[in-house]
Amino acid sequence: VGMHGDGKWGARVVLHVKVSGDRQLRLSPSYYARAIRMLRAELNLARQQPPLFQVEAPDGWLDDEAEEFFANLLCRIKATSEAADTKGASGKLPRPQDLVREGRNAAPLHLVFHRLVSASVLVMARSSLSMAAALLTKGSVVFPRCYQAAKRPLPAWRVLPCSRPKGTPRSPECRGQRVLMNGAAWLRAALS
């Protein structure tokens, strides 16, 4: 996997994902899949190099719920890309090197916060850590609309709906997927 500084990548998009804690504060995998699809299309047009999508979960990826969330996210990216391809759009399936995630164990909080703040684009979770990073970043921010009841986005931030837009089909084949995330096997299984 290429790193951001090796010249292979353009913008570094960091997706802050909460996979533990209060279930009501978690955002669905479809929110992140829509953000990836939208940003991939925009950033591919704007830059020579493709964007790198980095998924950050400060709590790590140790439990079954986290594994299921990530497999569901990959499934939804694949499903929306395939649907767009049938309509003649240029959405590409994510390649393993486009989408990276931190290791299975929790990363130190200061490191996660630094990655959130230094991102070219921050896709927020519904959390105070995301809000603090968004207020400090010089990059672009994608704010979850369902968080507006608790926090207000700044005028320059982009607001993305948390739920799927009306009229779009559900992706039942993505529900309840579990893939053991040991090495690259989880990504191959989720994208197959």
Describe, in plain words, how this protein is organized in 3D.
The protein is 34% helix and 12% strand. With 192 residues, the protein is of the alpha/beta class. Strands 3-2-1-4-5-6 form a 6-stranded parallel beta sheet, sandwiched between helices. Strand 2, helix 2 and strand 3 (99-101) form a beta-alpha-beta unit. The model is unreliable at 86-96 and 178-192 (pLDDT under 50).
Q: Helix and strand succession? A: EHEHEHEHEEH
Main beta-sheet annotation: 6 strands, parallel
Amino-to-carboxy terminus distance? 19 Å
Shape verdict = globular
Per DSSP E runs of 2 or more residues, the count of β-strands stands at 6
Derived from helix and strand composition plus strand pairing, the structural class reads alpha/beta
Helix content: 25-40%
Count of DSSP-assigned helices: 5
Mean pLDDT: 75
Lateral strand order in the biggest sheet: 3-2-1-4-5-6
Radius of gyration: 16 Å
Please mark out the parts with pLDDT under 50 across 5 or more consecutive residues, or reply none.
Answer: 86-96, 178-192
Question: Strand portion, in percent?
Answer: 5-15%
List keywords for this structure.
192 residues, alpha/beta, 6-stranded parallel sheet, 5 helices, 12% strand, globular
